[in-house]
Amino acid sequence: MVLHERRDTVPPGFVSNGPASSNYTLTLRLGLAQGDIVGLEERVILISTPSSADYGKFMSKEQVEAYVAPKQETTTAMQDFLAQNNLTAKIVTPAGDILSIDLTVEKANSLFDAQFQTFVHTATQKRVVRTLHYSIPVSLKGHLDFVHPTTVFPELLVSDTFIASFTPGLPSNTTHGTATSSSVPSSCSSVITPACLQALYGIPTTPATQTSNQIGVSGLLNQYANQADLKDFLTALRTDINPSTTFTLETINNGQNPQGPSQAGVEADLDVQMTVGIATGVPTVFISVGNGVDGFLAIPQLLLSQSNPPSVFTTSYGSNEAGYSPAVASNLCNTYMQLAARGTSALYASGDSGVGSNCNGAAFAPTYPSGCPYITSVGATTGVPETAASFSTGGFSNLFARPSYQDAAVSGYLAKLGGTNSGLYNASGRAFPDVAAMGNNVEIFYQGSAGLVAGTSCSSPIFAAIVGLLNDELVAAGKSRLGFLNPLLYSSASAFNDITTGSNPGCGTNGFPAEVGWDPVTGLGTPNYAALRAAVGL
Q: In terms of domain of life, where is this protein from (predicted)?
């Protein structure tokens, strides 16, 4: 046996409750070494770089799987291991690189030289079974990337900093309507409606025409999107859209979307109202994940199994990067790389805790998966004129290196930052967020009432709606959809409204200041639709 992964201490927010019951059944995922992930990465960069001759030449499902599928020697080594230990595995990914096995804690401890314990998440009292270390047979070294969940504590996903909070009622001076000019309605200083976003960012209201172009919305943690709330939203705030316009539903692992008024989730309502209500006429699909599945992995794997996945999907959930092991984090990031090869844009809210929560000392705490170089991380702004929202999480990954597409922008910011926050962040890490959008005092309808929400949970679906509209225009013009956005965005900085005021305090500091150009609070800035149209060749 050889030690494979280890944590020296229990992650912040968790306490051990002693050894797990030996008869408790674990479902473990075995991540196999992917065949040619380096070759796929090289291909994705070419496909996603506007100056490349291969820009927009996305790959088929079968082509991507050929890069990811394990080599024969890896498959053989794993089959031998399973047979020797009387284990039956199920293939759970399209490329066959992740297997699932069921076994007792007693057997898992023996097979992987582990010590599975029951841990309690102190904030929620939720119990999970994990181990702080595990080993693998020498015969699987180089073939088995990870066993999951073992040293990963993804229950940090439940952090309230990623779930929108709803404040019922509206200020007395609130007005509704559709923006008719570039001027921003005065009511937008206190309440953000679709009219405000149309005026701020120049978002068109012309209905989309391409039914093949979809926006996917992630639904996790028993958050359900309510159709009646969406109808109320459209009736009040988008009078030019048929109020019966709705979304379709896809489910994973017994996911559901019940429609009882009290079952509506504020996060799910927010996400579908910002996509359906902003991306006029672009079909939206709500993807609901049932309990027992890591949604960060389940949703992209579902999309990879489809012949025509949504052109963009948005997720308003996340967790602290420290909760993930490097192997699992890397594998999940590779999943987003595969989606990039297929032509899907993956957007994630950056988080609502400034430079970090659960700082575990003075060092900043980046969020996940914002640190993955193959997703677009979205921060938040507030007010008119816009300034950085103080809660907008941003910083630098401790797991992923800075990608070349953001070298110039980030290096310029670090030069201006100088010694501020020195030693509290990884200056060579992947920097985030990439972009921003309005994230405060956003009006939605929830459980039959109008009210306000705040968070990067607002910003990510707003930006996704804009991408969806651009994709509609591109497809209508006979061009490729945008796919992985970041190389284009960083080469088109003038297509954004630069946010130069505000900061994101946290961890006992003032955080990072917003500056001219990219910054780790609002990224490149907020979108200018007309300038983005020009940048994508429309």
A: Eukaryota
Taking the model in full, what pTM does it have? 0.94
The C-alpha angle 116, 299, 279, rounded to 5 degrees, equals: 145
Q: What is the mean pLDDT of each successive set of 10 residues along the chain, which is 538 residues long? A: 94 90 95 96 97 97 97 97 96 93 97 96 86 97 95 62 76 54 80 96 96 95 94 96 97 92 95 98 95 74 94 92 89 95 97 81 86 97 96 96 97 96 95 98 95 95 98 97 98 96 93 97 97 96
Compute the distance between CA of residue 514 and CA of residue 512 in angstroms, rounded to an integer. Answer: 7
What's the CATH fold of domain 184-475+482-535?
Rossmann fold (3.40.50)
Domains of the chain: which residue ranges?
Answer: 2-34+69-156, 184-475+482-535
Q: How many whole angstroms separate alpha carbon 459 and alpha carbon 93?
A: 30
**Which residues have a catalytic role annotated?**
267, 271, 457
Alpha carbon distance 391, 440 (integer Å): 10
Query: CA–CA separation, 531 vs 538, rounded Å?
Result: 10
Helix (H) or strand (E) holding 463, with range, is helix 456-476
3-class DSSP assignment, residue 145 = strand
Give every CB contact of residue 295 below 8 A, 6+ residues apart in sequence: 157, 218, 220, 252, 289, 317
Q: How many whole angstroms separate alpha carbon 312 and alpha carbon 336?
A: 12
Residue with tokens 């300034």: 387
